[in-house]
């Protein structure tokens, strides 16, 4: 068995027997405990995106933190990952991807709110927080905080960076015959000044790049959907029927309903990151007057990523049947090339180069967004020492270079394993600490316009460590 196959078996076991049930179960639990926050507060989530551009002099705005999370979320998982899920799990994988996202919005609210509650002020005027910090400060375990930070650094500092670079090099090679080594050199040169500029530079770039690329991609998908308007209901029927194996021949090449669940949950988690413990690292950096406000904003990021952008890819590919892709049958194409071929079959060859450029921007933004996550956790380990910052940034560039030359299967499977490990730790932590986020939600609902104060707060289960929330955080 080769390395890709070995990693694949580990990944399948991890998701089949642990993560699918834990992800969906945690999402359902917090959906109930929050009173359906993803539905009840949906309007507040939308409002928060457009009223969160203000920031303090040194910090990062709530919108910039949202954009960093969106940049990391909206990447190759939305284009290459969804196409891979359709091939391996059939159209039904999209249903399970939707389910993971919808209940995951509640999970995302909880983990982002916890990141705000337990954040600390950093020496550059920004904040640092996330699972490593709330595990240490909320659960009193520096050891498990370190374990989580190591998993995240391997995920976002190594495997995810390699994965994004892998997709870029693959599409440039297949569409423009550019050798992978050339792509590796260009990516390192382009990424270096941004990565070495730190989190503030990443925030400035992603706040316009991430929303813009998502809007353009959704517009392309909507064009294809409108052209095939008579196929909208059949596509939905195909997705739901395949999800529960109600029609023969469309359940996917991997084995019926289990294949659909496995691939949908795995690709959904990779794409929207709900419960994974990654987005809270960005959420913690924002300056807000109430921790629940950033919870709302990060929750809507899951919706944008999966319900909008991932669904866009699904409709592009499924509308190309049977000329490019036939559900339930093997195909020589997978990942981004399948999505591009599907779009070309409906809009013409001219859309190919456009999508190649767009995929490059998707993957590139994810590289710099992933760096921000890894930097927060490397700071947790090193205490913000200068050697730690430069070590991580060098590691990021090495991962980008190596990923451009690696095999697709090996990179995907390694990313799944490291992501699964950090998700398990984070899910256990937020289940243990959820009462703090629920208390913050109660405080917000009691008086939405009042800044959050932790001292003598009747809605909170106790006093928070530190002094960030012991006064009006204006």
Summarize the structure.
The chain has about 475 residues and is mainly α. It has 18 helices and two strands.
Topology:
Elements: H1 3-33, H2 37-40, H3 42-50, H4 62-73, H5 76-89, H6 92-117, E1 120-121, E2 127-128, H7 131-139, H8 142-176, H9 180-195, H10 199-227, H11 232-243, H12 256-272, H13 279-283, H14 291-318, H15 336-347, H16 351-382, H17 386-403, H18 408-446
Antiparallel strand pairs: 1-2
Number of strand segments: 2
Number of domains: 1
* Alpha-beta content class: mainly alpha
Radius of gyration over alpha carbons? 21 Å
Largest beta-sheet characterization: 2 strands, antiparallel
> Based on CA inertia axes, which overall geometry fits?
globular
What strand order characterises the main sheet?
1-2
Which tags fit this structure?
mainly alpha, Amino acid/polyamine transporter I, two-stranded antiparallel ribbon, 18 helices, 73% helix, globular
Task: Note down, in words, how this protein is organized.
This protein has 18 helices and two strands. The chain has a single domain (3-446), classed as Amino acid/polyamine transporter I, CATH 1.20.1740. It has a two-stranded antiparallel sheet with strand order 1-2. Helix 6 packs parallel to helix 12 (256-272). The model is unreliable at 248-255 (pLDDT under 50). It has 474 residues and is an all-alpha fold. It starts with a helix and ends in a 28-residue tail after the last helix. The longest helix is centred in the last third of the chain and has 39 residues, at 408-446. The protein has helices spanning 3-33, 37-40, 42-50, 62-73, 76-89, 92-117, 131-139, 142-176, 180-195, 199-227, 232-243, 256-272, 279-283, 291-318, 336-347, 351-382, 386-403, 408-446; strands at residues 120-121, 127-128. A hairpin with a 5-residue loop joins strand 1 and strand 2.
